[in-house]
Amino acid sequence: MLDTLLPILIFVALALAAIGAWRRIRLWRQGRPSPVPFFRGLAAVPRRYLVDLHHVVARDKVMSNTHVATAGGFVLAAVLMILVHGLNLAEGVLGWPLLAASAVMFGGSLFVMRRRRNPPARLSRGPWMRLPWSLMAFSLGVLLATLPTVGILPQDAGSWVLAATLTLLVAWGIAELFLGMTWGGPMKHAFAGALHLAFHRRPERFSSRSGGEGRSTGLKALDLDDEQAPLGVQTPSDFTWNQLLGFDACVQCGRCEAVCPAFAAGQPLNPKKLIQDMVVGMAGGTDAGYHGSPYPDRPIGEHRGDPQGPIVAQAGQTLVDADTLWSCTTCRACVEECPMMIEHVDAIVDMRRFLTLEQGSTPNKGAEVIDNLIATDNPGGFDPGSRMHWAADLDLSLMRDVGQAEVLLWLGDGVFDMRNQRTLRALIKVLRAARVDFAVLGDEERDSGDVARRLGDEATFQSLAKRNIATLSQYRFQRIVTCDPHSFHVLRNEYGELGGHYTVSHHSTYIAELYDAGRLQFTSWKRGTVTYHDPCYLGRYNGEYEAPRHVLKALGIDVAEMTRSGHRSRCCGGGGAAAITDIPGKQRIPDMRMNDVRETGADLVAVGCPQCTAMLEGVVDSPADVRDIAEFAADALVVESSSDAVPPTVSDNASSSQEVVS
Amino acid sequence: MPHELTKPASLTVAVLLSVGRHPVTGRARRADQDARGLELALSLSAARIELVHAGPFDDACEASMRGYLGMSSGYTETGADSVTLVEQPSQADVLPALSHALSESLAPQLVIAGERTEQGEGSGMLPYQLSESLGWPIVGGIVAVEAVDEGVATLLQALPRGQRRRLSVRLPAIITVNATATSPRQSAFGPARRGTLAVVEQPAVHDEAQDEWHVEPARKRPKRLKIVKSTSARERFKAAAAKSDGGGGQVLTDVTPDEGAAAIHKLLKEEGVLR
Ligand code: SF4
Ligand code: SF4
Known about the structure:
The complex is a heterodimer.
Chain A (H helix, E strand, L loop, with lengths): L1 H27 L9 H20 L3 H26 L4 H27 L13 H16 L13 H24 L4 H11 L42 H8 L6 H5 L1 H4 L6 H13 L1 E2 L17 E2 L16 H5 L6 H5 L6 H16 L6 H11 L22 H4 L1 E7 L7 H16 L4 E3 L9 H5 L3 H15 L3 E7 L2 H10 L9 E3 H10 L13 E3 L13 H9 L23 H4 L7 H12 L3 E4 L2 H8 L7 E4 H7 L14 H12 L1
Helix pairs in contact in A: 1-6, 2-7, 3-4, 3-5, 4-5, 5-6, 6-7, 7-8, 17-26, 21-22
Chain B lengths: L11 E5 L2 E3 L6 E3 L1 H11 L5 E8 L3 H11 L12 E6 L7 H12 L3 E4 L12 H9 L3 E12 L2 E7 L5 E7 L2 E5 L11 H6 L1 E6 L6 H4 L21 H9 L15 H14 L5
Parallel strand pairs in B: 1-4, 1-6, 4-5, 5-11, 6-10, 7-10
Antiparallel strand pairs in B: 2-3, 7-8, 8-9
Helix pairs in contact in B: 3-4
């Protein structure tokens, strides 16, 4: 009886799954076009799965093994089952591997089951709770049904009751695994996930065999010359089709939720829920079918959307609340953790763009900051002619006077901030001690555009960027060094699309290089415990985790690492203009970060970012002082003799200092 | 002159816009007070909004007008997405052209203007001269238009120290907005770019008075220091927060215009404004 039932079952399921796939693909195709290399993308899937995706999954060893056993066993078992039970091919030979595959899968599903017994809060429940049972039903059913095939049991073993039970078991498993894949069950992640790997909007983020960096963090530019092109994303169908595909690939593992600083602070953002809301919007309906953690303090079931309707509705029921989008610090912790390679930050900024560029509803100080950037080229509205006032006594070479230098020192908007001026002074002391030939743009420098872009104001970003690129193109230098990771990221990764290509180094990288080249000497550090806070825009955005630690080590400091450090570092709360939009939560992100510091027992936190400095220094009752890497280095400098520290181009500087003072 | 004042839906509001100037960098922008005027107009439901600017049509003008147009998101049906640009050479007296455009083609019942421009003469006289030439009443220092009913507008006027006075005025009328009126909404790039500038030609009248003027940058004037003889923090705070109230002054009621003018003249002489 099984011999007749199984083939029917398998082929009906395959046919239904194909129909489901076609309908799902139509949902994705509602998005805007985005050209992809079709065959090359498909061909890249195995590598992207085995190397890149697995690299992320393997951070959780048990889960990674579980997934390999279950998924690997399933793929093998499914193919063999179609051959053996569906087409009756080489049953005697292929039956054995089929037996083995389903056994492995069964083993995997036991682990899935174990994890589901007491699932952590980040995991979704609902249909996900039945998944281990379905996996078991499938693997056990196939296992048992294959026993007679390979002759372990006689062909006519058991009664028709047994055969019917077995058929039901297999049917259940096939329904979940084949139909659920394309009709929207938990297994959808496998189908959408594989295609998402193939047609990812950022193919460059995957490693390549030739050793590509596998990092792609710069936001993509809007085409502002085309007046018809939409300014950001208003409705789910304004996303590109492969972004929609990406949302659909979410496996609701909640890793993003677990690392999101805004979620932890009780702000109304949960990256996992956000992605699920996008899926709701793409398919149309309400979020009532969502079974994970909500946005803090926002009940489930009150949001609805449809593919052509606005995501942030100005009245009535909305798919996502605006303050959800404005809570994000763009720290990329979610993207870094997501095993499905979903790009949350891109999506959030896309939606912010619409709110700012079309609706003019940037919250809190956002609008004022944008106005300042437009009118004065800096977010604080300071006189752009006063950029160099802090350095009136430093005799800095101006590019306008010297025309070229080995290093162009990009100062950033920290020039207007008294705290950051100390960092800049320290950095200049270090550069002079190493006799670096450097110059600054002075009043010709503008805000890099980072804040404008994260606030969604692509127009102001591009205006600033283009003018900065024009200024930079007048001068010759080998590289740009900056102590602001935000400027660093924008200059390095986001100016390229607009025609500005530079070698850019963070000051910690540069100091490390100078030290390694023997151009700096440090006395060793003698006081207190030091921990290091990785700035998001230096670490996750640019992969620089080592250089700052190297500098600290050169000073003889043994860094007492926080639990969340390196690629898992917790944001200071100041990125992505979150300090400007200032969406209220239950606690403040910098306070949480200072608690991380407290746990290490350190009395000093080393940082490498003016924004982190400001946020962490703003913590009341702080257990530790905040110091920039440059300050550490400057304090420990061994200067051979004082006359050596005088900059090499004194004559040039005399004229520039006059200009500054006047 | 407009006639259908009975139907509130047919209220037409003209907002006079000037080219603003950022106080720090001098870049062209939407002028803060005029933007408040536009914000006030947008708050009037079912009003048709006519944006008007008279002056030379150059880059600064366009940048500034687009600043106002950027406020029209969600209000395109009111007409706030288009500026009537009465083009005039820079040396022209825009009053005749503006008054002609208002009375002949735009026909508003309510004209909203800022109190003074951020550059140029900045005398704040234009609304008064318009009022004279059109023969419409003018009310200054308005923070809100509460209602328009049967051709009568109920206005809220700002007085010193946060006081407010409710006034009724028969339309058509001109109002100027106070600096404490609702601050203008954000100007967004999309609507600013899409908005239209409809240039209309008007004969220019040369401003002869301007020829005689000599313009130079203002010098920084010394600030008068407040002398605070305080003993407690509370008093110091009060002194810092208080507006100087000038002490004296008198309220004249029921006097003839001549007596009033004489009183003002006397005060100006005392203060050394007139010599
Ligand atoms: S980027 Fe950071 S703040 Fe934004 S959603 Fe992801 S984890 Fe949360
Ligand atoms: S977005 Fe990624 S990390 Fe977050 S729940 Fe979905 S798959 Fe997991």
